[in-house]
Design brief:
Blueprint (H helix, E strand, L loop, with lengths): L1 E6 L5 H10 L3 E7 L3 H10 L5 E2 L2 H5 L6 E4 L6 H10 L3 E5 L6 H13 L4 E4 L6 H12 L5 E11 L8 H16 L4 E9 L9 E8 L4 E7 L1 E13 L3 E5 L7 E9 L13 E8 L8 H15 L7 H19 L5 E2 L5
Parallel strand pairs: 1-2, 1-4, 2-3, 4-5, 5-6, 7-10
Antiparallel strand pairs: 7-11, 8-9, 8-15, 9-10, 11-12, 12-13, 13-14
Length: about 350
Amino acid sequence: MINVAVVGCGYWGPNLLRNLYSLPGCKLRWVCDARPERLAHMKRLYHDVPTTERFEEVINDPQVDAVVIATPVRFHFEQVSQSLQAGKHTFVEKPMAASVAECQTLNRLAADGNLTLMVGHTFVYTAEVRKVKEIMDSGELGPILYLSSRRLNLGLFQKDINVAWDLAPHDISIMLYVLPDLPISVNCQGKAHVAQGIEDVTNMSLTFKNGGFAIVQSSWLEPTKVREMTIVGSQKMLVYNDVEPLEKIKIYDKRVETPPHYDTFAEFQYSYHYGDMFSPYLSHVEPLRIECQHFLDCIESGAKPDSSGLEGMQVVQILEAASESLQKGGCKIDIAPLD
């Protein structure tokens, strides 16, 4: 039995709490939040789980094996480092920390303590993203030309991070999971319309070492909710639409073919191929439940999580470079390999 404490009961923490509470082999030892009214609400839902406003009470409890942190980003580094130093396996929501330097410190603490450190890249655990990776690895789409993602909605506005740090980690973590290579540079442009200094609309371009290209569009100022990723291969195209109730993945047998050779521009002719559309069957299990179970399994086995501290640091590195690009008017910022 793994004794787990959940820290942070705002927007996402209750979802983690609900799933952990239902998992066999997991016992909720504490629920922690700085706001008494949130703890009172959690107590009404889970009357048998102790609550506390003091984070120190959680990490100083020798019966706590693991800590799940779902607090604002500005608290991540301090709370995760304290949790690891106290010998607790630690799960932290995305983004992992506010800088690469902080992520490196957290990864070192986890390695030194032989502890599991996992980051909440929830979409990596969805059946849809797993299927996308399977299709791409099979070569069915052909060599990948580019990816384009749009994650748009009205709100929720954050006070300490911009929309790129809030929404883009989902899309970046998916891309890093399904693609074999890491990006080597990023360009990012955006604008703050509501809160000064906090961009609510951003557009990010990623260049990969194999010549691949990806676009990540994020916005808190859209009238409709959009969660869509398009993957264009040389042979077929795939659309992953998370808003679709049933057919979330659609594979289009479409492509543009160019002539192998021509002597004059007048002889140059594009050839458009139009084939069938196919939507694969997907089993529907809540990805957050799979993610929470994966955390527990990694603690027991010592295996590396699919969204470990390394993947968390890679996402933060891209976000950090994107922030620099934003400050410099959208110019290209190189991304160096991590040690």
